[in-house]
Amino acid sequence: MSANVTAAETDFLGRPVIAVTGLGVVSSLGRGVEANWAALSSGRSGIHRIERFSTEGLRTTISGSVDFMGAENDTSTTLSYAMAEAAGSEAVLMAGLPDDDFGGPLFLAAPPVEMEWQHRLALDAMDGAEREEAGYDRLLEVARRHPNPAIYRLTQCSRISELLADRLGTRGLPITLSTACASGATAIQLGVEAIRRGETDRAIAIGTDGSITPESVIRFSLLSALSTNNDVPEKASKPFSKDRDGFVMAEGAGALVLESLTAAKARGARILGIIHGCGERADDFHRTRSKPDGSPIIATIKAGIADAGMEPTDIDYINAHGTSTPENDRMEATGLGAIFGEALKTTPISSNKSMIGHTLTAAGAIEAAFSVLSLQHGVLPPTINYDNPDPAIPLDTVPNTARSADIRTVLSNSFGFGGQNVCLVIGREPRA
């Protein structure tokens, strides 16, 4: 571990200050930080019609799928790995480190792995006999009698992280986690905590999700969670608008290299931003809905700000979870209002999901990377498609056009199905 830590390199609790030294992004807007920031800051949407599979009979026929990573990435596992590898390698190289010998732990947020339809059909075709058992029981029996190493590898929970650990040269057992839509932020939190505990000088946190399949679209449709505004795809995601009708599923990956400020300065690394605080709280009210009084959301935001040693007045900009569903946007605004009060009406709050869609497991990491870029460039990405404001939640959404702003601190929110909530407080520079 690094020695001779100065007071300026520890926070108000004496913990190591956490620096961000590398970023990587893949989304429907393109591959790489530069391409993504150019599109995001210009208000361009990456939402488009689904062409990966037939959408006949589906209520939702649009997504923010990533279709440029190569034909070989035709399963959720292979695509999720390809995007994570691209984002992770970009972040490590940006940090000035070798992308095959990173030397710190990996915390990976990845989508839940299960047997896709193509795998089930392949197994089904191996067994022509009539059998009484149905569904998974039958498929498991077929799999036992016809072992298929390819399917086994694709359905291993740890497969993506193991490949990444080998590719990037990380240290220790790679951690794979899935906390729904908060997963990417959870990965960052785990990296921050490992450095604060003194277990490592650096860590890489990656969130990835390449799981747009017919089955996933149908599942979210059955929850009435997806937008059905199919006619003009780029207009479908409209967070905080009165006529919002659901989120748009999307894919992507985000990566952040985290280091103690002491270690980063010792090797002359460029400091891109600071993770001041992380807040995490659970909501046990419902599998998909938030507790009506918003108390878990409120507690999460308070915890993140408190962990940073700050007050709500220290937050200059809010990178909203902002999914474009009727309930989520209302509950997020309610929770923020309980903390910021009247100041919320003048605190800029925008949603990247209006342009890239909801990248699910990857969202927290991608949006944290965008938050760092907002601080670096002094530009607030817009909430596009904000043409019909909701009078019930009056907000400064940075409507439709990016805005220049001298901001020092961002609150990045991630609220997930199943009650997982994480908020990150990200700054431009260490606090005095």
From TrEMBL:
The keyword Protein biosynthesis does not apply. GO terms for molecular function: 3-oxoacyl-[acyl-carrier-protein] synthase activity. Residues 15-428 form the Ketosynthase family 3 (KS3) domain. One of its GO terms (biological process) is fatty acid biosynthetic process. It is an enzyme of class 2 (transferase). GO terms for cellular component: cytosol. Keywords: Acyltransferase, Transferase. Gene3D superfamilies: 3.40.47.10. Its EC number is 2.3.1.179. Pathway: Lipid metabolism; fatty acid biosynthesis. Pfam families: ketoacyl-synt (PF00109), Ketoacyl-synt_C (PF02801). Belongs to the thiolase-like superfamily. Beta-ketoacyl-ACP synthases family. This is Beta-ketoacyl-ACP synthase.
